[in-house]
Design goal:
single chain, globular, 281 residues, 36% helix, six-stranded parallel β-sheet, binds NADP nicotinamide-adenine-dinucleotide phosphate, alpha/beta, six-stranded mixed β-sheet
């Protein structure tokens, strides 16, 4: 059992709900293996109480927080020292409470996406061709910014509510454009990302003409179940797939370093998560 002392560094994840989060499992496994004197706990502030919660922690009551749905945009607004990539993503998934009262914010989702692609689709190069992102919420925005910054020649955003895709494209600009759900939007695409919440709990994922996108890599941010209907459809079409659990673990790595001051130890945290999800490796 973790030994808590007066010197223990406290960090956590804030979300509403937060009970489903795998972050406590991941960070506490890393803490146990590294011997760092820290603990990582879930917090579930009231949906309208996040600002008060954060102000209460400012000044170093806890070292920092990961932030998940629905607080990522508000987390960025509350920060006094956001990183450029958090500002560009329009959302923060990490807050660090400095002892001088500053609230630093970062967004590691895009880094997690690129690292997951590197791990499960070796050889994938974002510069090789257009990417399609399905969804225009916070996760899509972080992914679009990261892919555009990594040199994707075009990042096409397709969303159920088209105005949100247009808004996202307008605010990121450059290579990021809004597109309609038709075959033309998938022409020459090298990467297709599901950044909608469709497919959770084993339900059907978003439509995509996988048989018309030979050689594309397909990533699903949804990881419950691990092998989503979207990824299974892509796999049956012969495409390389990347799962949302890999992205989750990869975005947690820089968070751990920022919260606890050292890189996570090289343990197999994926197997720990798979056991929790009831999945086989
Ligand atoms: N694996 C990871 O590390 C990771 C990281 C971040 C997020 N995620 C996952 O990514 C997903 C999106 O997260 P988010 O924060 O971006 O959520 P969000 O801001 O609430 O956005 C949800 C997106 O899903 C779309 N959507 C919802 N229901 C739909 C439906 N029935 N048909 C078509 N589109 C629908 C929404 O479209 P409208 O705009 O039309 O409503 C919107 O584009 C979630 O499943 C989240 O758990 C995973």
């Amino acid at each position: 059992m973790t030994r808590i002392t007066g010197a223990t560094v406290v960090a956590g994840v804030a979300g509403a709900p937060v009970g489903h989060s795998l972050s406590p499992l991941i960070h506490n496994a890393w803490l146990a293996a590294s011997g760092v004197d820290g603990v990582y706990v879930p917090f579930s502030p009231r949906a309208d109480g996040f600002a008060a919660f954060v102000q209460g922690l400012a000044g170093g009551v806890v070292r920092g927080l990961n932030v998940t749905v629905p607080f990522k945009e508000e987390a960025l607004r509350l920060a006094t020292r956001p990183t450029p990539r958090a500002e560009r993503a329009g959302a923060a998934n990490l807050l660090i409470f400095e002892s001088d009262g500053e609230i630093a914010a970062d967004n590691t989702d895009g880094e997690g996406l690129l690292a997951a692609l590197g791990a499960q689709a070796p050889g994938f190069d974002p510069r090789a061709g257009p990417a399609v992102i399905l969804g225009a919420g916070g996760a899509a925005r972080g992914a679009a910014a990261a892919l555009a910054d990594a040199g994707a020649p075009q990042v096409r955003i397709i969303n159920r509510t088209p105005e949100r895709a247009v808004d996202l494209a307008r605010s990121l600009g450059g290579a990021v454009v809004a597109a309609k759900l038709d075959v033309a939007a998938f022409a020459d695409t090298r990467l297709i990302v599901n950044a909608t919440s469709l497919g959770m709990g084993g339900l059907v994922g978003p439509a995509a003409p996988f048989h018309r996108t030979p050689g594309a890599v397909v990533l699903d941010m949804v990881y419950r179940p691990l092998r989503t209907e979207f990824l299974e459809r892509a796999r049956k079409a012969g495409l390389v797939t990347v799962d949302g659990l890999e992205m989750l673990i990869r975005q947690a790595e820089p968070s751990f370093a920022a919260l606890f001051g050292s890189a996570p130890p090289p343990i197999d945290v994926r197997t720990v998560c798979l056991a929790e999800l009831g999945e086989t490796p």
